[in-house]
């Protein structure tokens, strides 16, 4: 009994430290992070549509309906900025570590497995990214993990309150991202097959009723967009076909983005862990494997758009990462127990600490959060964590920064903040994130629409109280520019490869009226020194 209490305290302390690490990784410099790429799906939708239209459509760019409704409410009340844009994801990402640690403890009663699993989740670069990214995946992962745990509890203690909680969690998850309904289907199908196979027909009836209730709960939230906008949802299926290479890249990303030489043995350890867990708890082991891996197969068969890429496929099956890392943690500890021929907690904890330390030290998560700053969420750094498999690393391999970046690189780090313009939100064609690695100065994105562009806002927000982003600067507002503390303003001719910035000359002329003559001009960049003279009122 005393040993169990000690083990429980160790597990609790370790999980608390891991959760604290998770919070730091998900919050550090979040207020500096420029919204990029898919984060603009919701921003564009809330700028162009009312609550009714948001509720009733999936959108061409698949905005998440409840997330966009939340952002619109936020924008129209207290205003939206970087923290508000990501607060639900941060909370979900941190909570996932604590919740998964609790589930691991209850499943194994092993402190080493619990603590190692918590640290693996805390420092998983893919999980860290989507806990700092304005998409629903961090939220749905938490909801699905909790729902799957409640389904397993419901298997033993069937009650209406528990069934209602399961319905609510799966319905909200599917509302955030419809593909997560696959996990509800898989979990309940497993229980129904188990009930029928063991001739527990009364239990099977209850499982069937719960399945119908879950389905109706999901339909209640998605019926309107299904009827009004099913084409945009169905049009994303059957576009791309994942293959073995896709699955290997998903495994690499899920296991921490380490080199392939580490991924292969980690997969063997995870497989051993899965087998040992199943051998010890066949019902639970089978349930977890089926409930999590059946949706993986379903996503493969659906052929959803871009799922031939490991990164995209992985975010559609995020709960599989939680299970894979649990199997790996369990495998590491079971190898120690097998070699020692018994469970020795100090030895298991020592190995868990060593594995967690190596994982965090050699994985990219901490390094990325500390150094990438404004461009942390740029796809260039996350398409694949192994450069040899990263399509953007290959695409930008021969792309060199403008000459003026040498000036920035020679200045002490952090002493010359830079505003970059024009801002291009589509990450695959925006090279500024790569260029920023050459100087390590703080960066802001400069918005030009109100200064020198026309047409609707696309990739920019209007200058009004709804939007309070610190990382986005309106260049027609000298006071806002001064408030950033930026030293230089750089205007690029060719951020998008092969496409010159059409309004370059007009925008530079307007900027001269505000900030004086540039200090450097070449065929790629015009540089303004914002200290040279006090900004003037635009004539």
Structure described in brief:
With 539 residues, the protein is mainly α.
Order of strands in the sheet with most strands: 3-2-1-4-6-5
N- to C-terminal distance: 80 Å
Share of helix among residues?
55-70%
Q: Rough shape? A: globular
Plain-language structure description:
The chain folds into two domains: 2-367, no CATH class; 397-529. It is built from 24 helices and six strands. 62% of the residues lie in helices and 4% in strands. With 539 residues, the chain is mainly α. Helix 8 runs parallel beside helix 10, helix 13 crosses helix 14 (282-302) and helix 16 crosses helix 17.
Key attributes of the depicted protein:
single chain; 539 residues; mainly alpha; 2 domains; six-stranded mixed sheet; 24 helices; 62% helix; 4% strand; globular
Topology:
Layout: H1 2-27, H2 39-48, H3 51-55, H4 65-77, H5 82-108, H6 111-122, H7 125-130, H8 137-156, H9 160-176, H10 181-197, H11 201-234, H12 244-254, H13 260-280, H14 282-302, H15 310-316, H16 318-340, H17 345-362, H18 365-371, H19 391-395, H20 405-410, E1 418-421, H21 432-436, E2 443-447, H22 449-452, E3 472-474, H23 478-483, E4 488-492, H24 504-515, E5 520-521, E6 525-529
Parallel strand pairs: 1-2, 1-4, 2-3
Antiparallel strand pairs: 4-6, 5-6
